[in-house]
Design a protein that fits this description.
InterPro entries: Glycg_phsphrylas, Glyco_trans_35, Pyridoxal_P_attach_site. It catalyses: [(1->4)-alpha-D-glucosyl](n) + phosphate = [(1->4)-alpha-D-glucosyl](n-1) + alpha-D-glucose 1-phosphate. By secondary structure, the protein is α/β, with parallel strands linked by helices. The protein folds into three domains: 192 residues, Glycogen Phosphorylase B (Rossmann fold); 157 residues, Glycogen Phosphorylase B (Rossmann fold); 314 residues, Rossmann fold, CATH 3.40.50.2000. The protein has 31 helices and 24 strands. Helix 21 links the parallel strand 20 and strand 21. Helix 4 packs across helix 31, helix 9 packs antiparallel against helix 10 and helix 26 packs across helix 27.
Amino acid sequence: MGRTLQNTMINLGLQNACDEAIYQLGLDMEELEEIEEDAGLGNGGLGRLAACFLDSMATLGLAAYGYGIRYEYGIFNQKIRNGWQVEEADDWLRHGNPWEKARPEYMLPVHFYGRVEHGATGAKWVDTQVVLALPYDTPVPGYMNNTVNTMRLWSARAPNDFNLRDFNVGDYIQAVLDRNLAENISRVLYPNDNFFEGKELRLKQEYFVVAATLQDIIRRFKASKFGSTDSVRTVFDSFPDQVAIQLNDTHPAMAIPELMRIFVDIEKLPWNKAWDITKRTFAYTNHTVLPEALERWPVDLVEKLLPRHLQIIYEINQRHLDHIASLFPNDVDRLRRMSLIEEGGTKRINMAHLCIVGSHAVNGVAKIHSEIVKTQVFEDFAALEPEKFQNKTNGITPRRWLLLCNPGLAELIAEKIGEDYVRDLSQLTKLHEFLDDDLFIREVAKVKQENKVKFALYLEKEYKVKINPSSMFDVHVKRIHEYKRQLMNCLHIITMYNRIKRDPAKLFVPRTVIIGGKAAPGYHMAKMIIKLINAVAQVVNNDPVVGSKLKVIFLENYRVSLAEKVIPATDLSEQISTAGTEASGTGNMKFMLNGALTIGTMDGANVEMAEEAGEENLFIFGMRVEDVAELDREGYNAQEYYDRLPELRQAIDQISGGFFSTEEPDLFKDVVNMLFYHDRFKVFADYESYVKCQEKVSELYLNSKAWTKMVIKNIAAAGKFSSDRTIKEYARDIWHVEPSDLKIPPPNEPRDAAEDKTPNGTAA
């Protein structure tokens, strides 16, 4: 979620009043804002997307709740110590959190372990261990519409009789100390992005948030007029018309068997009715096609932790496979491919399959990704129910990612087209009228230059490196992962360095290359990539021949509040994943909206950005999805590129020969070995195309006016990428609710006039 103060002031329309009041107290608002800790309760794109969605849902007047875990320790703070990433705990609650309100009156029990008894009245889950879920509510204000939604985060608490009931009778002290075991559930965020680690504590976290949330939703449904009680028993027929639950990836997939357990075991609904209601309630968003990221939980772990849920999953699977067998008799391979249970070695539950079978809608997050989901990853399921599969291209909130982080540009746009674009970003197309307005072109360039100067001062303060603010700011910030190909950027840096050294007198367009992002602590290759970037920076930044022509900075501890500083100052946005691997990307959209040009592959939302702005207004290079597939058929041979391309060969020889690590010449042997013999993401295959494309970037940068015109074309085409548009599509196509642009009267005005205007509908 990042910081809350400035976002709240903007959405409430109070920023100028607060700035002035604080100024009159002799204080500086910006200094005050810098004191707030980021709430870093997610890993990367998926968690930030949820935050943008909350902002848009409130702004569109949807009755929506964001549910998650109140981690005591969020994503680690990254320190760089002699070039290596070192992790520190993110003790973000140390000074308290003024935005949250504990709600002990809504505390709920969550059960683990135990066993299942089958009797005349059905199944009973007994002898469980209980953990309490304590909710903390954070307000989510819409933009200037007097709507405030809720983000409810659960914290784990041990019950007061924890370990004191039964076996631990004598040891009171130890029993109280053991409360930590239960409360560890919400202690820390697992720091993996796009990688599945099948740990028991992680499965506990996933079930914890699901079980508490579903109880909360059902409590709210029963308290409403819809949960009418027929002879003491609730009628759930209208449940899917009143409740929509969106599964953000497979992490909350246990919600499907959990809702079935509630309906069948507790509410005593017949299976078929329960299953119909469950399917109509859930929808699933897929966020990645990388096989190592797909959740596949071992059956024995689920059986130990959630025995009843395993039985329910088996029953869901049996009925699912019976259905497929009736449609495709004797096709055992299809049954194996489509089963929720993967046999062979340790039996595992394929959580994506569970989500598809248990949901009425499945979506990818960009056109190209949704096609890959349909035709490759889940082709059998899409063949069965093509109407279930949709696309919902991701978006970003223009409140945080333009108004808040780039007030200069936001104001300049408002002067030209009015202020309405903040709620309807498609209005940015009106900027096309000013493409030949020389004054506007100069003003856009001026705002960018001011942002660069401000960020350059920040960099010089933090990194003690002299930055040339007129150099091109070439920025690559995102989680460090092989598929995002920070290594290819690194090879380009080395190539630029070698060109300067070869001919120091030749014209060179000066660059400041900024790379930032966190590596999962257990991801060895990602950590080596960080070390390599820092080793290259060390050489480049201290070579007097290079001087101010080229500077390399590794941006420490990349997070939302740092993104808000670097994105408005960026000239060139690096979006260079291997085609077919980045589901959407959202950083790409933030840079586009903030007046950077994009160098990128035809991957994720880059494809739609090129479609909106015109491919000639992005720097597109490299293999397309079809080319990657073709290369896979032929067999990718990295050696061939090394042999054919002298500049690539020189760069690789320098890395492997210890040019960047004189004290430990073979420091990067693992990296080089990977690039030659098991590079799934084909860095060498796109190197030549990338370097040539970068030459075109430098050439255009020399012509400030032509560059800025292209920038304006990009900003004018960024309207599609508002999360407001994304949420409207979810609301209409999946949740079946109508967004409302009604401005609720403020609390100081009488309400009677507005009573009948309140729209009713599904709560998402």
